[in-house]
């Protein structure tokens, strides 16, 4: 088992030319915590996630992982993007095994089974549904045994029913793995369904923060679910 890392983002600034996207953003996640960052389209959510993954550098402020400044690509993080980003010229199995060493390859099949696609390893990504492709993307991320899972609107292009099914899967995987998770979404219902804490980003800063105390799992079935979702 790989314990989740602590994440500390403090006073982070990032601008593209005169477009100030993050203007002193703060985010802390305890090891194993599930944090959701919600905000409108264009509010800087993906920019924040790229900083956490080490795919981009802030202009100011700090990003610390387990107490140490992040330099280069974060080795313990894996990202799932909205479009899955599977490589179309590899079948499903090799897509999941990508970047794994020889003896870790077995994990690819194990993870495909975990997301319910054990029998699709030799299919091409193109023949899968959108939901199945996102399952493969999740399997690929988890096969890397991340201690930090970064989800950038992973369910944004799915229909409502598939989205709920996938939310259940994500919760089950997180409950089993306890990797620290940062979920970026513009869907408040999704944030309340999955996260321990919901952070609202607006104008490049934290505009609000709500702990989600509705018991797990399957929060959607709880009477307080809708009330909290409407508050946020
Ligand atoms: P969100 O994910 O919340 O929709 P983004 O983080 O993708 O928002 O984008 C926030 C803002 O930053 C947008 O105005 C976008 O155009 C700008 N932006 C993001 N990445 C770049 C980049 N590489 N170069 C220039 N502008 C960028
Ligand atoms: Mg985005």
Automatic annotation (TrEMBL):
Record InterPro entries: AAA+_ATPase, ABC_transporter-like_ATP-bd, ABC_transporter-like_CS, ABC_transporter_ATP-bind, P-loop_NTPase
GO function term, MF aspect, one: ATP binding
Source species, domain of life: Bacteria
ABC transporter domain residues: 7-228
Annotated PROSITE patterns: ABC_TRANSPORTER_1, ABC_TRANSPORTER_2
Keywords: ATP-binding, Cell membrane, Membrane, Nucleotide-binding, Translocase, Transport
A Pfam family hit: ABC_tran
SUPFAM superfamilies: P-loop containing nucleoside triphosphate hydrolases (SSF52540)
Protein name, UniProt field: Sulfonate ABC transporter, ATP-binding subunit
Organism field: Fimbriiglobus ruber
